[in-house]
Amino acid sequence: MAQLDQTSRIREAAERASRVDGRRLTDWIPILDQLRAQKREDETLALLERLFPANEAFAQIMRDAPLATDTDVNPLVSFYERAAIIYRRRKSYAAEVAVIERYLSHCLPGQAYPKMVERLDKARKLLAAG
User: What are phi and psi of 55, to 5 degrees?
Assistant: First the structure.
């Protein structure tokens, strides 16, 4: 019971730290989808840059929760993946590498989303060839 109470308190703190303009991180997904549909990439990137620190704060705080799951202790990959896709499309390989490295730096060892590790390798190759 004590672990459950501690996890609950930590989750509440993580939820508070992860809010951006009063919204939970997952509440931003439909807005990001709308921006993508409207091809408003600059606005998407600007919003993602605001979401990254909150996403990272949530994962960092959750690492202290005794009953946290693997998905709780790593940042949501979808935000970084969206940015990486835009940067690749723009042939901004250095920016793509940077955003993927940022994601990986906030993941526990061996727990990063495998597609992002693969994407980093490809982006580095594109950057080196560029």
Answer: -60, -45
The DSSP call for residue 112 is: S
- Residues facing residue 23 across a β-bridge: 20
How far apart, in Å, are the Cα atoms of 73 and each of 20, 103, 110, 116? Answer: 19, 12, 12, 17
**Hey, which residues does 20 pair with through a beta bridge?**
23
| 54-79: pLDDT as tens digits | 999 999 998 877 767 766 789 999 99
Give the tens place of pLDDT for each residue, 98-130: 999 999 999 998 999 999 999 999 999 999 998
User: What does each C-alpha distance from 90 to 86, 87, 95 come to in angstroms?
Assistant: 6, 5, 10
Backbone angles phi, psi at 76, to 5 degrees: -65, 120
> Which residues, at least 6 apart from 29, have a Cβ–Cβ distance to it below 8 Å?
78
- The pTM of this model reads 0.91
| DSSP single-letter state for residue 37 | H
| Residue 59 confidence (pLDDT) | 92
Position of tokens 């042939």? 91
